[in-house]
Amino acid sequence: MKSPLFVDVAKGTQHSIGITNDGTVFSWGRSSSMGKLGRDNTETSFTIPGSVPFPSDDIKVIKAFASTSSDSDSGHSAIIDDKGRLWMAGCDRWQQLGLGSSNGGSTGYTWKGGKQWQDRFLVSQSVTELMNKDNDDCSGIRDVALGGDHTLVLSSDKESVYAYGKGGDGQLGFVGKPFVSAPKRSPNLSGKNIAAVCAIQSCSMTIDDNGEIKNKVGKCRSSLISDGIMRCIENARQHGLILDKTIVN
């Protein structure tokens, strides 16, 4: 089988997601555990690119994101389609997929049949609900970042960061460091002129137009985190979210 030609590839620590020119999605990785590939392995091994199924053939994907989980038995994925919808798959143990209502509170929702993962991409409407509630002029999502067990979503107005999932290390930027949270606007990450968001394991940060760090929360001190920051900033530059490349010490 001929390998597909990708116009963009989201590289996580355990898996990758590729997008072709026509908006088709492929996934592959070290394992398929907890559904992070958004597909099964009946037709294609998880170690090579395999097509990701969707409810209908008219869904075209324009952006993809893969988590930075160091645990091979974890990990989650996100995509944005050409209609601006956010889809998520993978581990949902800490509700990092945000599949419940924005009114769900700290517990968010319960899993059907006790299944703490989703092996198919599902639309996550809660963040969109919050964006529309907070700002009528917000036109959608600018950026997404997936940490080890949490998710960050940046609004198109470059001001609001929504965070959800595991938060015990302060990575959600909420007062009190809740152990787990449904999607909410993060007071410590939101602000003005945010160009991109980064999430590396239990660390979260915002980046300005010049590629410099604005705010940082969570456990962010290690060489692994520093390397992740560099990759995130370079990725933001390649996708036109920041103006130029900046070296971070």
Q: How are the SSEs ordered, and which strands pair?
A:
Layout: E1 6-11, E2 15-20, E3 25-29, E4 50-51, E5 61-66, E6 76-81, E7 86-91, E8 117-123, H1 126-134, E9 141-146, E10 150-155, E11 161-166, E12 180-185, E13 196-200, E14 203-207, E15 213-218, H2 223-238
Antiparallel strand pairs: 1-2, 2-3, 3-4, 5-6, 6-7, 7-8, 9-10, 10-11, 11-12, 13-14, 14-15
Structural features:
about 10% helix; four-stranded antiparallel sheet; repeat; Reg_chr_condens; RCC1/BLIP-II protein; mainly beta; Signaling_Regulatory_Domain; RCC1/BLIP-II
Would you mind describing this structure in some detail?
This protein has 249 residues and is mainly beta. The chain has a single domain (6-238), classed as Regulator of chromosome condensation 1/beta-lactamase-inhibitor protein II (Methylamine Dehydrogenase, Chain H), CATH 2.130.10.30. 10% of the residues lie in helices and 34% in strands. The protein has two helices and 15 strands. It has helices at 126-134, 223-238, and strands spanning 6-11, 15-20, 25-29, 50-51, 61-66, 76-81, 86-91, 117-123, 141-146, 150-155, 161-166, 180-185, 196-200, 203-207, 213-218. The strands form four sheets. It has a four-stranded antiparallel β-sheet with strand order 1-2-3-4, with no helix packed on it. It has a four-stranded antiparallel β-sheet with strand order 5-6-7-8, with no helix packed on it. RCC repeats lie at residues 23-83, 84-157.
